[in-house]
User: Fold these one by one.
Assistant:
Number 1:
Amino acid sequence: MSRPKSLFGAVPAGILTRAEAEALGKRVLSFAKADETSVSINSNARANTRFAVNQVSTAGDDTDTTLSIRSTFGKRSASVTTNKTDDASLSAAVKAAEELARLSVEDPESMPGLGPQTYPPERSQTISFPEAAERARAVKAVTDRARAAGFVATGYIESRVGTRALINSRGLFAFEQSGGCSMTATVRTPDGTGSGWGGANANDWSGIDADAVGATATEKAGKSRNPVAVEPGRYTVVLEPTAVGNLIPIIAFSAQARSADEGRSFFSKPGGGNKIGMKVADERVTLVSDPADNIGSSITGDGRPTEKVVFIENGILKNLNYDRFWAQKQGKQPTGLAFGCMRLMGGDSSIPQMIASTERGILVTRFWYIRPVDQRTILFTGLTRDGTFLIENGKVTHSIKNFRYNESPIFMLNNVEAFGAPVRVSASEDSSPGAAIIMPPLKVRDFNFTSLSDAV
Amino acid sequence: MTHSRRDFIKTVSAVAATSAIGTRGLGTVDRLISSTGSSIGDPTYRELTQVALDAARAAGATYADIRISARRSQRISTRENRLQGADDSDTLGFGVRALSNGAWGFAASNILTKDVVAQIARDAVAIAKANSAVQLRPIVLAPAPAATGEWKSPIKIDPFDVPITDKVALLLEANAAALKVQGAKFVTSNMFFLREEKTLATSDGTFVVQTIYRAQPSMNVTAVSADFADFQSRQSNDVAPMGLGYEYVTGANMVENATRWANEAVQKLSAKSVDVGRYDLVLHPSHLWLTIHESVAHPTELDRAEGFEANYAGTSFVSPPEKMLGKLKFGSPLMNIRGDRTQHGSLSAIGWDDEGVKPDDFMIIKNGILQDYQTTREQAMQLDWWYKSQGKPTRSHGCSYGQSWQDVQFQRMPNVSLLPGDKDISYNDIIAATDRGIAIIGDGSFSIDQQRYNAQFGGQVFYEIKGGKIVGMLKDVAYQMRTPDFWGSLDMIGGQKSYELGGAFSDGKGQPSQSNAISHGCVPSRFRNINVINTGRKA
């Protein structure tokens, strides 16, 4: 393997530089005959290693460059995406997009493309990208620890680097680098009664501590053995940052201005309109999306610069997500949301303090299989997993069987007792790197557990 | 697991070609390459695959395979009276998997030149060697005869030959029909089509070329109450995704169905909120397929049972195999579950899997007792003892699949279906035989734990049954279950005439997560005394 270790010292083969992306975009535009043409270019390298039952199960590297070409005639548009970048293929793709656009129907909500935009200065950064042998060493750090304890480790490392460019026939050109990395491990006891999880998520490989991931998962596996059953019901919960990160970003997915204004959202106001300006959470709750937390979140899908968006400030709903059409219709500014970035502001408590102050409650490592139940209340269901413990009289006393919950993150944010310090978490179910999710631990009262699970 | 709706946002990237490119035929492998318009000259696919296999072997691979995939897709999205998007997408590339020192390596690229193909093959071997440093037990593959040939989904009309104007007109007509229903305020509708042309060559001598199609029209109607206090939706998931062509779309009666779906969305606004408690559930095939998928198909994947998916999809309560096979009472004696990749028009139908195995039909559960797991070549070896005890050959069931050229193949479920009962019983017969129950049509909310014990399912439409009759619509219904108890409570099952296929395009498993498309056949069935909760919360 001769893959370079850093992206912006030496670019991995196949990843487009700014100049290459601009040249490719201009080549596409040179074939275009539509009233308007825009091109989105994504060039990515991905390296991953999976391990299972204490050894590597699969690993792979891949690279790809895709172009999405959108052609518009008047209010008729269509797009074609391809990963073939030779002139004949590009010209054929442009022709196909134009043919599709001509045949499609007029969209009364069609918005004209944007002209040149002003972006904040690009941050110069080196993104480290691990080779297969380096990833295998990180795996060994986890499996050695698990084997030493007599346990079984399974897990995953994924690292991504890439570049993204947008160019259109009105003179817009935007370019950014992107990167992300995650490592997660699930360590189980051989008797099948204990399971622990550890995870890390960062902008690149240098931010991942494989030892810490392995240590957390192994420790939790040991402590979670032989769980006892506790009756489901409403409990005070101490949620570790990952568990909070599993639930809170759901709020942002539901925070669409248009569905709220149309009367089909939690954020719809009874009688009409939306809840902007209304109190929706405890006054200590502030929820923001900040592109600065991430590498590769500086441009919106349509080419505008992203911005920090405050969804909830001191418990008051401050913003919903407006696309360009709906913003214009409602006399608002479109939102420059950095999709996926989510940060819940914290407080001065800590997990030990939260436990110490709890007479009877549940400590949750993370949640799993989280799916919508009722959009009207952002009600979701899912289960605890990989380390669930009973708290009695200020102490963790037992490993307990997992619970299914039916709960809304917005109800939860009305029941917060204490906030800890926010940290970046690996919150996606599949452990893909994704955007930065930064969450504090929370102590929450009246969390609704509805049934027991025998799953470990 | 199937993906949540929002997962679609990040999975819609890779797709399909232009109509100009789309004129390529299969079977003529040379044309497939030259019609891409790439600058790689005129080598045939066979030549390229040979370059990869030779390079892998020279670098130290004991086994290698190469998959070259040209995948085209099209998505058309509408909302009310407008076309929101017409997106055509294609992706071409290849992936090489190599076994060296008993460990796997995989590498992939979109650049189809001989040099790059050879380099990627060497990269795959290098990754395998790096991995072998932490390998404890070498990978061993079950034997599979070398295969050659072609296979194509049984389509009548290629969706990519149908003008976009026809597709948009059909969706907008269906939207208009839905919006004619008083109280139906919003409607979205979509069509999705896929064609994948896939060439697989292995160092065992297999060379197969397959063309796979998928199609689904879909709709979602939302009704909003006049006072903005309630809204309810009806999704069209009783029209399943299928491995068929455009003929399936025109046969789906989208316009007539739109009126029904809209009416049902409006009726849900005034439906009675369910009383919590235990009910007999009559589950329609449009609903039951997903319960089978989550609670039967996933736990009988051998890699899950052996702990390989512990970090994401999870393990399985059907474990360890040596204590389960021939012993585990999974459900009632009415429960017969079969795996296959042959049902006509099903999403899993294929000629050969992604390591060249011709799939067989196999019983997973017979009269309620576990018989087998879903397997690939490396997994079949682990059940060698069981097959020998049963007098069966040790062979893969042909369950290897990679979602694209970029993703390594691994065990994915075939069609996993509940077989009909012997008697000619219909959905209405089961309702007529039920004293106090709830009938559920269409799949809705779903969630299940990482060992597939505890699940919760909603639906699209719910009807209260009293004294053998439907007495009204319900809402806010979800049932919670423990898998073996639930299947043990199965006491009435439909006959052959009531058999239907349901399915999904987006079954997620693996890291990086890959989507698999599967169908599940089933018949209407009754489950006794199941716990029903009310999901309509206020605070």
Note: Chain B touches chain A through 108 residues (CB under 8 Å).
Number 2:
Amino acid sequence: MKELSLNILDVAENSVKAGASLTQILLTEENDVLTLEIVDDGCGMSDDVVRSVTDPFYTTRTTRKVGMGIPLLKLACEQTDGELTIESVTEEEDPQGHGTHVTATFNMNHIDFTPLGDVSSTMLTLVQGHPDTDFLFVHKRNGSEVKLDTRELREVLEDVPLNSYDVMEWIGAYLREQYEELP
Amino acid sequence: MKSLAELQAIKNRMKDKVVLRDGMEGVRVVVGMATCGIAAGARPVLNAFVEGVNKENLESKVSVTQTGCIGICQYEPVVEVFEAGKEKVTYVKMNPEKAQEVIEKHLKGGQVVSDYTIGAVTA
């Protein structure tokens, strides 16, 4: 992947596929470390599945027997001496608190750090494809943050779809403005 | 600064449009957005279709959606065009410029851009 934002898009799609009603994408920059968290309230995975998702020869798709999403994210963080952890609780284990929490850390000063790229475009793509699920995006840097919470937008929009073009344009401008002010 | 009040105005403006979209029998543009598609550059292709369809005022006729892996990863980014009563058209190795051409010639003009279809690449 050319940008980390594409890994984020790819892995967040797994959350949506797991039936998440809310998928959180949290980016926190502290000193030279970037922490990416993708947290969902989807169906969760058993311990066996959690162990196997980092293996490229494990996948849920049926078109072929290779799944590269998590392995590529793992590669991207480990090549900066960061690490990837996955915690997951299945619906059976906890009918209330199920879901998956993927955490990846990156050393941003490492020569093999993949640039974050266009995260706003990733958020727009997620909203465009999944207007009926919610996303919370928070990017923290130097005590400031960029935030998008589709639940807040949905409250205003009521039955107008989040992926209506005018709404998408608004979201794009909303994120762009916040990024311009992020130190 | 973008405000929620602005969003409220968009909502009021959109209300009638939403009714129009329901029950339409139109063209479906489907972009493959699995790992293979994303890695090959599907995100800007999707954006080009979303923006182009809006710019050409085709939203009442054309919907742009995403799908997972179509199974021909070596040809990503892959875009499929479905139209009732017509054979599915599969465009391969797409980029935003090619997307623009497909919007212009195929979605607007009804003419398949055969240079970019899977048949042209495998033939």
Note: The beta strands of chain A are 22-30, 33-40, 84-89, 99-107, 134-141, 144-149.
Number 3:
Amino acid sequence: MEILVCVKRVPDTAENEIEVAADGSDIERDDLVYSVNEWDNYAVEEAIQLVDKAGGSVTVVSVGDEEAEEVVRREMAMGANNGLLLSDDAFEGSDGKGTATILKAAVEKGNYDLILTGALADDGAGQVGGMLAAMLDLPFASVVNRIEVMDDKKLKIGREIEGGNQEMHEIDLPCVLSIQTGINEPRYVGIRGIRKVASVEIPVWGTSELGVAADSVGAAAARVKRLDYFVPDLGEGAEILEGSLEEVADKLIEMLKAKGGIK
Amino acid sequence: MAGQVFAYIVYKEGKADDTALELVKAAGKINPDASPTAIVTGSGSDLDAVCNEVTASYKEVWKFDNEALAYPNAEIIRQLLVKVLPADAVVLVAHDTFGMDLSPGLAIMLDSTFVPDVVDFEGLEGDTLKAVRQEFSGQVSTHVNCDLSNGAVINVRPGVFQADGAAGVGGQVIDKSSEIGELVLRRRYLETVEAEVGDVDITKEDVLVSVGRGIEDQDNIEIAEELAEAMGAVVSCSRPIVDAKWLEKSRQVGTSGQTVKPKVYMALGISGSFQHLGGLKGNPFIVAVNKNPKAPIFQVADVGIVEDLLEFAPVLTEKIAEGK
Amino acid sequence: MEPALISPASASFLGIPEIIIYILIPLTGIGIFAYIIYRRMVPLLKAAPDDRFNRFGERIKNVLKIWLGQWRHPRYMLAGVLHILIFAGFLILGARSTQLVILGFVDNFVLPGFGGAFGTFYSVVKDYAATWVLIACIIAGIRRGIFKPARYAVPSKYGHDHTFEALFVLGLISVLVLSESLFEASLVAAEMQKGLHAGIVPPLTLVWFFTLLSSGASLSALQGMHSVAYFIHEVTFFFFLCFLPLGKHFHVITSIFNVFFMRLERGNVKPVRYGVDDEHLDDLESFGVKVFEDFTWKHMLDFYTCADCGRCSDRCPANAVSRPLSPRFISIKGRDYAFEHYPLIGDNSAESKPLIGGIYSEDEIWSCTTCGACEQECPLGIEYIDKMVDLRRGMVDEGMVPQSLQKPLGALEKRGNPWGKMERKRADWTKELAEDCPVKILEKGKTADTLYFVDSISSFDDRMQEIARSTAKILHTAGIDFGILGKAEKDSGHEVRRFGEEMLFQDLKDQNTEAILNSGAKRIVTADPHAYNALKKDYSDLPPVEHISQTIVRTVQAGTLQLKPVEDGSKVYVYHDPCYLGRHNNLYEDPRRAIDAIVGINRVEMEGNCRDRSFCCGGGGLMLFYEPEEEQRMGVLRVQMAKEAGANVIVTACPFCLVNIEDAIKVAGLEGEMEAIDLAELVERHMVVDAPAEQSETEDAKSSK
């Protein structure tokens, strides 16, 4: 099975507060460190496991600037066979559709049975997988948390839906799936692993290699444009109780009693 | 001006989801003059019941009745919508796991604009809609301008457009089943595997003491259990706690866990991602304890305490015990 | 002089001269033995290199002390004394057995030097030795067979019980001493009957006893006893010799070598591969131990040498809390693998199988805190920490790292601390100190005499920052010119290395080394034993490193640091030895002296569980992130030990110990009853701080006089 996994380089925000730059044009990026989007990492692990079982190869692709190469390399250290970087000044400012357009062109230059994306990334949109499937006219499933290969024509998949339930489907190949975290336990990639693939050549394709019209992607083609970043006004938020731990506890107990929170 | 507004109605067991009303509210926020049309797909009596139910809020309800639509499979419904919707339609869909499945591809097939997970609208100027989204798990918000000239599919975050109840508009159901035509089944629904039910049913509890990442360590769960015991409450949690296997899946509140409707919700060390809040219904009295004053939970909580839960909760437990 | 009985070399059986048999038996026995040893050597020859042919003086000293002197045996008194008796008996009777074997084909053979007075003396000693060996075997047999100490139990997941083998060998030893004694006694009895016996029979020995019993027997009966006893001894001796390398009694042969080659340093970690320096690690095809042949030959020798005594597992904290690790079975399973894949007969070139998922499990290997209690206890010098580290290196190389550890490792790579906190916040703990105790940050050319290496947990953890602040105040009050590295400091990488992520460790080490050397400090002090051990053992070419307890003792002695009498005399303090201060660095006294420098302090010891028998609190560094399967927390057991010792304050000298013990006090429900405090905090509380105002007052007073 030939599998393509789309990955994104995102700021690692787990431990650190994101702050908005003074002019609101961007978040403060100086102190941020970047890594591969968590969902995408699960997708790559799943692809590697599928190939381990069913044979074939895994290709990792990322749309981004030259720094996105580091996440492609990392996923190759994890065990992906090939890497691909889609980078061009014309891609800058692409919205979801633009990104999907670029990826579509890359998919069409290969011969893939399965295309995986993460279910979500830093922008919380969760859109590229579904768009890519529609552009390629392939079946699609989102928030997939289980994949079983039935035969070379179809997969059995599980989607994580509300209530923690799992919705099982049979889906025809080739298809596009967006992967939910928890589907597997991604393997560790150490510095040594990354160094081993440090000298592997990762092709970089731009508009000309992909045959994408520069005006179909990038900021100009975007129909959804981000205007600014801001931290929502906390004014309407909670009434913050202040004082010593004991004082706060006393105040809270009164409130809880009034609301029936203490039985 | 943008085209006709539609709302896709999600329902379960013959009853429309809360989002059916929320989408009316959202449509009003986009354009106060809009009169959205409801789209309800399915088959049989459940479908009819839902169609009738939503006539209370929608003037026009399009009904699509077909065996193939019996289970809401986004892969099939998308094909249907592409056939029946006008080119410049503005389609509102709840941003739940169905909406995430359906909408991105739908926008591509309609060649319209997709706007994911919107939490607010700030007005329509010509064909440009200004919406509010969140990024980085809700840590920061952004304004986005969306071009509606070719129509749009807009996914609206469940729960943010709180509806006041059905307006009693007395709309009519239009059966459009004849327009369905042939549907290709490339993804076939098999079954739904229900999450395991644990020893406690948190969906039926009035008071929940809910713990998140801030609990830090499995052994600290005890601190929450002691507080819950003192309050006569039950312990629930957010997703990371279940991922870490510190509590059972049945204790998880959120879109990928249980939907709860308590009267009082104590959120201890929970940052308040929308996936978590998505599982919190019925407008409870929310108390948030978190050492990060910028945690999004403080935006939705009624009362906030900026303290380390590991320090505060034992004091509270002790005080409650004293008062008894 | 005509012998009283026909000797084995002169006797014949059914007309065949027995000398033929007694030449054939040793030849066959030695031949088989040599063959077995050769086959046992095969894996060792395929093993990874190990650098042990060095420091011969120290190695010989170890052999004399630990092997010959049985130094570690009395730590388990009854078993230890029994072993010493049997071991001493073996050494003494070895000469006699050799003589007996040769007597089978050389009449009246006497070992060179065993004639004359020494021979007579030896004869008495060996008779007593044989006697005590039998008594020791009987007691040991009763102990193993009837009382069955829990230590020897084999949990079902590790295979069958080993009692039979133990009893069988005790039986063989008994047969050897009994047959030797019978052989001798029959001769003495015959000599007595013929009036030939000149010497004395040592009273109360087996020989004495048997002589007494057989004094009335006929000469022919004595002759029969003599011949049969010899035959039994001969056969048993060579059977035993060839039986030894088949199981845990291989240690009888390998122990002297294993002790000779045992590790000489503590606290250090073996290089990834001996002979490959840090700069050339990238050239290695594979890292760590993945298959059996990746072990070094010494580690394989460890497997052969394990006597299955269970002391390691008895002292192992992971085993005590039912984590899936028992060091004893690390060895036994390794040995069984070697025996199975390198059989004595037939093909021994079968393809090697991965150890993880084979004989070892991932959780088993991650469960080790590297506390070193097992190695401290092993009477045979078997090593575990390096094996754990090597197996982990192999797992890391294969990507087999639990999710709970991947996060902190990723953060260490990107941010230099396991929580992923921002580098620039590393010195934030000093902010509260700004007024009374300024802390210099040694950057941009700023320098100080002493560098305080804080390390991650004391820099970032809210509670442990107290230790950092106390340490800074102590240094300040003692008048030491010191500073910290601030954002240039990275995690010491102590656990990064011990968890098998060598390359990440190398990165952290290089960054820290550069920052430390740039700071221009002449000495380093730290309050974190893990950092202390890393800087001392894992880093090289740094200024001398001191733990804060040493600094306290030094400055108190010099009078630059003065301590007040104890604040609360009613409290009973107990000191918990951190593994990386005590066992790994031999710092037992300084922390105790530092505590005792507080006049009036009431300090007790956790007798039997202190100093080199300290019980690990649960592990530091990355172990805080790992979520082991366990029934109990190590810290809880430790707190209970402190409680039993009558203490209500546990003094630690390590931030990780403090985390674990404070947690354990809560988990054990002993809040209010027990408390934990770091040594630096305790000392800082009792420090005499000269308030500047008071000083000027006294000066005023002086000037007014």
Note: Chain B touches chain A through 91 residues (CB under 8 Å).
